[in-house]
Write a structure and sequence with these properties.
Number of strands: 14
Strand order of the largest sheet: 3-4-2-1-14-13
Structural class: alpha+beta
Number of helices: 7
Order of helices and strands: EHEHEEEHEEHEHEHEEEHEE
Strand content: 25-35%
DNA sequence: ATGGCCGGCGGTGCCGGA
């Protein structure tokens, strides 16, 4: 089973590219982030005509997540409140960043982790609070479903080898100590990075800034991940970054990452 | 040198992204 994750930076703007990619890469499951569209306006038909079942959780202009699956998914849930009580979740479900479903006994959780703006900002504190909630959410999930694939745009580069230039990273959003520690705390629940099972090199990125010709110079960050529970990690056959869509005209700033189980 | 470049929104500038 192949599970891909791709922050498309607007599904309506990227519709044709996603369609073309799926025709060339007929993955079993595609997890999308930053769809940036309300559910009634989501362009469902072209993807359904390709043979995918769509599960979407969006909002106007910002955020939004979706899962496309060749086989129907079971137990679809959106947001943290599907598992955690409302006093714990508070207003964190207002931004649409979490959708999950089950296929062949594998629970797939698709995440769009908050960006955080800049270290120390209000949005940064929101990001850290969101990650704390995510840990509770995943802890409860693991108690029920040990076969877990948590994927998406994490907006965190966990190690210096995941950044083209780690100089000054302590004060850079996506690489500060508190962000990395929050993610490490989550992984200690029993999750491991599928990509690093197969590739230990630096210079392997999933996002490149639109500005300053970052892509042709490979000045990127690896911030899109698949984290697998131990049983799935052992089974994983490959995990690859497909840079092809990033080379197109009007690309997303992220490119797909694919794990094969 | 701390910007550049995008997408969405709503109306031709600004916010958010990372």
């Amino acid at each position: 089973m192949k599970i891909a994750t791709w922050n498309v930076n607007s599904i309506r703007t990227r519709q044709e590219q996603v369609l073309a990619w799926l025709q060339t890469n007929p993955v079993d499951v595609l997890c999308l982030q930053e769809t940036k569209v309300n559910d009634p306006q989501f362009p469902r038909l072209p993807f359904e005509n390709l043979g995918y079942h769509l599960y979407i959780c969006g909002q106007k202009a910002y955020n939004g997540v979706a899962i496309f699956s060749r086989q129907p998914l079971e137990d679809i849930t959106v947001g943290f409140a599907a598992i955690l009580d409302e006093n714990t979740v508070q207003s964190f479900d207002e931004q649409k960043r979490v959708i999950a479903g089950t296929i062949d006994g594998v629970r797939i959780i698709n995440l769009y982790v908050p960006n955080g703006a800049s270290v120390g900002s209000e949005k940064y504190l929101y990001k850290l609070g969101w990650l704390k909630l995510l840990k509770e959410y995943l802890q409860k999930t693991l108690e029920k479903t040990p076969n877990l694939c948590v994927c998406g745009d994490f907006n965190i580069a966990l190690e210096d080898r995941d950044i083209h230039d780690p100089k000054g990273r302590e004060n850079h959003i996506m690489a500060s100590d508190a962000e990395r520690q929050a993610l490490k705390d989550i992984l200690e629940l029993g999750l491991a990075d599928a990509f690093r099972k197969f590739n230990t090199e630096s210079g392997q990125f999933s996002w490149w800034d639109y500005r300053a010709a970052s892509f042709p110079r490979n000045k990127g960050w690896r911030i899109d991940h698949h984290y697998l529970s131990s049983s799935l990690y052992d089974q994983a056959k490959s995990c690859t970054i497909d840079k092809t869509p990033r080379k197109l005209e009007k690309p997303s700033d992220h490119t797909p990452v694919i794990v094969e189980l």
